Amino acid sequence: NIQMNPLGTGAFGKVYKCVSVETKETVALKSVKKWTGEKEVAMLEKLRTLDKDNSNLIKFNKHFEFAGFLTLEFEMLDMDLHQFVKSFTRPLQLPEIQAITQQMLVALDALKSVRVVHTDIKPDNIMLINHQQLPFKVKLIDFGLAHTISEMHTGTKHQATLYRAPEVLLGLPLHEGLDMWSLGCVAAYLYLGQHLYPSRCEHERMRDTRKFLFNTLGSLDDIVRSCPDHTGNEKAFVNLLKEMMEVDASERITPCKALEHPFITSARNLSDSSHQIQSHLCNFISMSILIPLRETTHHHVCISNRLHLVELYGHIPF
């Protein structure tokens, strides 16, 4: 006995806001094809050992078959970050980004503890719990594309194009570090109000990644220095982005280490100078100046060469 109102439709199914006639509890029901839902249910069951509130993961209640589909019942949340950013009347400030990033790092650390990779970190899959009562309190949702680390095979495609890590593009060995890259892209998006990589296809994505790594016209540090009133918080934010978006996945910061980073641990009120930093960053992006994350290394040159070959041939020709 339920009353159902549609919330949205995705690639794998539909989501409804429902009220149980018996309990009066509001929940979200996700209706998917059986073969798709069974995989997600198996992953959600694997995550039951985790404390969903302390881990910032959506609560999964139960599943059942309804009208020929598998239906998954979750706690009801508010809106996703993509909707929130589009509806917000001002750019997000560093304290707000700090809060969201910290909670997602906790979520990634929890997933790492059970050797699970989400593979689809993006604003659409990060939801506010209740922005009116719990401002900027968020949870990670949608485990339909999640894998255990043992299932992450070299050469398989994962992640939305705008949040895809270099190792996925290049067919290199994969592990949970690809989620950290995606979260770095999300943090930058929240700060800029636009994507670091506006690429819409694989070819453009590879081209932009090469530019991002090796264009010498400036760096994130240069942008921070160009603002006379910057504080250590802006520097810490930029430094964390570099660590999160390290091209070499084996050197990328882990969730546990990121939670100890000064940007996350700092309790100080972050300066209003972040408005100026945002302006400088947006100017750099609008002029198509893509920024290297750290000094060029031999490993980065090898990655750039691989990307160039894929641009030319559509694959690495050896």
UniProtKB/TrEMBL annotation:
ATP binds at residue 34. Keywords: ATP-binding, Kinase, Nucleotide-binding, Serine/threonine-protein kinase, Transferase. SMART domains: S_TKc. SUPFAM superfamilies: Protein kinase-like (PK-like) (SSF56112). GO terms for biological process: intrinsic apoptotic signaling pathway in response to DNA damage by p53 class mediator; positive regulation of transcription by RNA polymerase II; smoothened signaling pathway. GO terms for cellular component: cytoplasm; PML body. Residues 1-264 form the Protein kinase domain. One of its GO terms (molecular function) is SMAD binding. Transmembrane segments: none annotated. Pfam families: Pkinase. InterPro entries: Kinase-like_dom_sf, Prot_kinase_dom, Protein_kinase_ATP_BS, Ser/Thr_kinase_AS, Ser_Thr_dual-spec_kinase. Belongs to the protein kinase superfamily. This is Protein kinase domain-containing protein. It comes from Cynoglossus semilaevis (Tongue sole).
